[in-house]
């Protein structure tokens, strides 16, 4: 397993402007002759940080990766617009910009966590996607009420607000991640890659700060439950594959309220993984995604 990851230079990079003026930096990788694929990430992370996963897709797919608003390579925007509903609207904005630059073409969406929730909200109201592959989408855990799910998101928000947001060096954050129980199963080079992709030089010239301010990240958790309950899988207009973490491990989400909803979501999980399954078992995650797409003639 690699102990170091280096994200390659993209084939193209461009700024997509959303309806509210938010700027999102999109990068094109992979095979321009392959099926179009658009990919984003979870709360507080970055698309380049998921390179251990999406590197297994570049041979087959024309891959466009982008960071959620106010994350990664994007400028920090207005905090008032930072919510999962806006993440869903941005799915449409990015797809429209890509189509305007490179022509109309069916698009496969690959999303994780809160970006998966945003993609679901967008897909149930539009024909934007030819298919969706969603990793550990935080829809609802079996047997839990929205109020109980709200408690889980409150814990995520409070934990985010307690974390440091300034670091003297990227290595300081990487070492912190290596000690963090949430990241114990990720591949060896992942902590360094994350430290490289979620930090930027501090505005005051002293050390490094989070690309996505922790209050923005916490705010996305604050309002998450009201978006979760709006998901209607029956309203989706494209095939869907949900790939979850092991429901018996800590730090996992588990989609669906009952068995019928799990079947409707075309659900699989990868044993011995947590919410960061794409950084723990990237080959298995990619293989399941490709198998689903091959079965539907999309790979």
Q: Would you mind describing this structure in some detail?
A:
The chain has 299 residues and is an alpha/beta fold. It contains eleven helices and eleven strands. It has an eight-stranded mixed β-sheet with strand order 1-2-4-3-5-6-10-11, sandwiched between helices. Helix 2 packs across helix 3 and helix 5 crosses helix 6. The radius of gyration is 18 Å and the shape is globular. About 2% of the residues have low confidence.
What proportion of the residues form beta strands (DSSP E)? 15-25%
Please outline the major beta sheet.
8 strands, mixed
| Envelope shape | globular
Helix content: 25-40%
Structural class: alpha/beta
Strand order of the largest sheet: 1-2-4-3-5-6-10-11
Return the string of H and E elements: EEEHEHEHEHEHHEEHHEHEHH
Output the number of helix runs: 11
Poorly predicted regions: 255-259
Number of strands: 11
Mean pLDDT over the residues: 91
Using only C-alpha atoms, the radius of gyration works out to: 18 Å
How far is the N terminus from the C terminus?
A: 26 Å
């Amino acid at each position: 397993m690699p102990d170091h990851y280096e994200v390659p230079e993209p084939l193209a990079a461009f700024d997509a402007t959303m309806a509210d003026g938010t700027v999102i930096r999109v990068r094109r990788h992979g095979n321009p002759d392959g099926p179009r694929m658009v990919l984003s990430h979870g709360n507080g992370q970055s698309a380049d940080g998921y390179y251990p996963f999406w590197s297994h897709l570049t041979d087959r797919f024309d891959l466009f990766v982008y960071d959620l608003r106010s994350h990664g390579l994007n400028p920090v925007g207005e905090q008032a617009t930072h919510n999962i509903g806006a993440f869903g609207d941005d799915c449409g904005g990015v797809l429209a910009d890509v189509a305007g630059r490179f022509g109309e073409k069916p698009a496969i969406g690959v999303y994780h966590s809160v970006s998966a929730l945003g993609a679901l909200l967008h897909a149930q109201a539009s024909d934007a996607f030819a298919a969706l592959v969603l990793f550990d989408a935080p829809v609802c855990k079996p047997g839990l009420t929205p109020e109980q799910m709200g408690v889980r998101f409150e814990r995520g928000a409070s934990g985010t607000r307690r974390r440091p947001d300034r670091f003297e060096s990227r290595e300081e954050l990487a070492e912190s991640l290596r000690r963090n129980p949430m990241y114990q199963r990720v591949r060896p080079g992942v902590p360094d890659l994350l430290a490289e992709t979620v930090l930027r030089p501090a505005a005051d010239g002293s050390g490094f700060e989070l690309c996505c301010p922790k209050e923005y990240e916490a705010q996305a958790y604050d309002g998450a439950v009201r978006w979760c309950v709006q998901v209607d899988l029956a309203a989706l207009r494209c095939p869907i594959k949900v790939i979850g973490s092991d429901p018996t491990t800590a730090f996992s989400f588990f989609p669906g309220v009952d068995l019928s909803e799990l079947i409707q979501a075309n659900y699989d999980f990868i044993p011995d993984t947590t919410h960061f399954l794409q950084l723990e078992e990237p080959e298995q995650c990619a293989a399941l995604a490709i198998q689903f797409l091959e079965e539907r003639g999309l790979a």
